[in-house]
Amino acid sequence: MSYTNSTTLQSPETEAMPGIRNEVTRLLVLALPIITLMVTRMLMGFVDFTMVSRLGTDATAAISPATIFVFNIMVLGMGPATSAQTFAAQCMGRGDKKKAVAYAWQTVYLGLVFLALSWPISMLADDMWALFNTDERVSALAVDYCRIAFWSMGFSVVAFGLEGFFNGVQKPSVALWSAIIALAVNIVVNYALIFGHFGMPALGIKGAAYATVFAWMVRTSICVGVLVFAREFREEYDSLRSWRFNAKLMRDYLKIGWPVALQFVLDVGAWNVFTNIIIASYGVQALAASNIGFQLLHLSFMPAIGFGIAASSLIGHAIGESRHRLAAYRARVGVGVNACFMGCIGLLFFFGRYWLPTFFNTDNDPEVVRLAAVVLFWAATYQLFDAFGITYSFALRAAGDTFWSAIAVIAHCWTIFVGGGILASRFFPEFGIDGPWMMCTIYIATLSMVLWRRFEGGKWREIQLFDADGATSSSTDERASENPNVDERIAECPNPPVYTALQPDAELPLSRQIATHQQLENEVRQ
Asked: Which long-range contacts (CB under 8 A, 24 or more apart) does 54-58 make?
């Protein structure tokens, strides 16, 4: 009698895919905390916008362009910080938790650089804002906000990177609770400093900027505190030993992250040009209406980004395990879920385009409501395309295919979106803001199809973030050497035990001993 293994394991390229219900459930379980996190990010801006809009139309026209402009500078650091999730997810797939947290710590050093840059950038706020074609009163309010809010850059970079790490290792609750607490802080400080409650001075739009800085400080402190003090991360991830700056890890970090940073800067910069130059040329009412549209669009793309981040984590984990078919399958599942969600939001925008803007129109200006309805019509039109674009953008990022996707986004953004918007505003002014927003819709539809074809083309399968002789493989050797039993088994076998076990009907090294033991038990029973 002999003990044999008759189980035949499938290769990664021929393995059966899990049921769609299981994958959707897995995606939703991971995505719901991340979506809640994205909603809290949205609510920080939404709270600023809602409270500041009580100050009048000028303040309403100033707050969204100002926050977009600040974010445009922040993404210089946030772009590389997104690498934390890519490396964390793939390291987890490879079983290397220590390397995952070592990459996460590099975010802190990147944040310190941007914290040091806050002062000179803040001093240049007036000069930078002079590039935009906005009303004088609106410009003064926007500069007041930017000059203060720039001090949140360093903290936001650290928080963004560490939250990506927690999402990558599939611990999104950490990022979620840090964001919820920061949101509560933001609401209270906004209420106190904008309107002068709790004995604080009424600072108007400046109060919203101070609240933003303080909220990011709280958020960053919580993320760093969990990494340092939580037992799970201290023991399983060895987080207290990998906090030092590592030039090699930072190079890896920036290699993947700099195209994302470039994409972020030019993408958000395009929205700055679109808002502060193209739309602003139609007047304050058009600018206020577009800002209302932007706030409502958060209801759509922020949760959609949450689905994209969750799908990215699952895709990166599969790639780390060298299961590329599973990664592609998860991308398609993510697209389906996102399309269902954004399709429903599109219907809401279309049928509610005249009453949704009334919640923000404090001056009861009917022209603002009419123009906001135009914005929501075009937003409803491109929702399904945006579902494809967002999901496949994150899928490519999970694979490390950041350079090509960055070039695609930048090229489409500045030719169709910005270039087309400028042509529409200058040569077809009779179309009003329909012209620029139609070009926005064409841009999103075209880009989404290009990203879809790039991912389905499979070029990302050739990308290797970790070399065969790199640190990750050596860390695997270190883990193996820590277990002497593993070394003894390897010495006994002509082939590695995993290789032997994968062979059909292979006799394992201990099979004779097991058979002998079972034979003795049978004799005793008889």
From this structure: 54/195, 54/362, 55/194, 55/204, 55/205, 56/362, 56/363, 57/284, 57/285, 57/288, 57/363, 57/365, 57/368, 58/135, 58/137, 58/138, 58/141, 58/284
In three-state secondary structure terms, 94 is coil
Confidence at residue 2, expressed as pLDDT on a 0 to 100 scale: 37
Stretches in the chain below the pLDDT threshold 70: 1-16, 133-134, 361-363, 466-526
Report which residue type is found at 348.
Answer: L
Q: What would the two tokens of residue 211 be? A: 């609240």
Strand partners, 5: 506
pTM to 2 decimals? 0.67
* Alpha helix positions (H), 353-463: 366-381, 383-398, 402-412, 420-427, 434-457
* CA distances (Å), origin 342, targets 52, 323, 441, 522: 28, 29, 15, 64
The answer to whether 451 touches 396, Cβ cutoff 8 Å, is yes
What is the residue whose two structure tokens read 């590099």?
106
Contacting residues for 187 by C-beta, under 8 A, at least 6 apart: 47
505 three-class SS: coil
- Give me the amino acid identity at 433: I
d(CA 52, CA 187): 12
SS (H, E, C) 165-209: HHHHCCCHHHHHHHHHHHHHHHHHHHHHHHHCCCCCCCCCHHHHH
Q: What is the DSSP letter of 275?
A: I
- Two tokens, residue 351: 């049928």
- d(C-alpha 60, C-alpha 65), whole Å: 10
- Longest CA–CA span in the chain (Å) reads 100
